[in-house]
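Model: You mentioned two targets. I'll fold them one after the other.
Researcher: Yes, keep them separate.
Model: Target one:
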Amino acid sequence: SQDQSFLLSNIVPQTAALNRGAWEGVESAVRGWADQEGEVFVVTGPGYNPDQIQKTVGPGKIPVPAITWKAIYDPAGSGTGAYICLNTAHPVCKITSVSTLTQLVNIDPFPALPASLKEQVASMPPIRQSPYALSHRAGNEKLQASWKSAVVQKAIKALLHSLTTNK
């Protein structure tokens, strides 16, 4: 199943801002959730606006979705929820219920689960800030440069040493 997740049939066109920013934060949050819980079921997909002519990319005219979503079912926590992100140059992501996602995209990612479970939003991890977005935020060059200074590096080494040394 890991190999299948890297097939070209398993991709969706995303704006660079979404892919490198908010979407990376969503994926990071879900990986953290899976690490914590041990097992979660994840379904990801596109959503199209039926009231707009779809933009396309490439010679095959692949439609570009208006939104990208990720639905999660946590069997241990008996909960579900979904992240929905606008696929724009300035993406915004929200956490919502699977039932709201189903109404929006007309796809039920977990058809075997009871409706009552899909109407509630599990205690989902917040969308993490992506390292790419953080490193490209205005003013970060000055902060990054200050962390590379000899004084800061010496202080970090001293802190690490004190944390790892038994007293």
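Model: Target two:
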Amino acid sequence: MKLPFENRVYAGRLLGQALAKYANRPDVIVLALPRGGVPVGFEAAQAINASLDIMLVRKLGTPGHEELAMGAIASGGVSVLNSDLVARLLIDPELIAAVTKREQQELERRERAYRGDHAPPVVQNRHVILVDDGLATGASMRAAVAALKQRNPASIIVAIPVAPPDTVEVLKEEADEVVCLAMPEPFLAVGRWYGDFSQTSDDEVKSLLTRAWTTEFGSPNFTEQP
């Protein structure tokens, strides 16, 4: 795998190729983690002719070191904490609660902004492919996996262009399958492995979702089984 990836669109197309066994199946859905995961997920979903939706997750940044995830929350009230990091840095529970409250408000804002009146996707009895543009600690993806398990999917497949090997190993214990295109060491940061890692805007996310929800690819009429 040649690194760095040119951009998220290119990475998504490569990821779609790696997910070819899931192509043209009405029981498959791609859920992308906003914001950066949406352009990757859009391309991957198109490549395998699957419907696309979003899985809202918010990282809980460590106070004073916001890029370092001490945990994450996801829709449905799911919270995942990196207990080793919290203990090592002696992070006060009140700080964790304050950060969680702030990120919960942002999660709810994004839910309204991105989804509007569009109904949440049916995931029960479906094979759900969770996509992001890359993982570092994996806290956000772990929260997404935990939230999805409560909704009884047939299986959960984590699909990412790049992640460190130890993060992939942790996720293999929690998801049914992990598809990762590249596991470089030393890892340092996701953005290091992209030529263009410019921030994905809310408007870009909404535009791609609108295109996905109004395009014929995928199987939007899948119904939940009793």
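Researcher: Noted. Anything on target two?
Model: Residues 115 and 198 are 23 Å apart (CA to CA).
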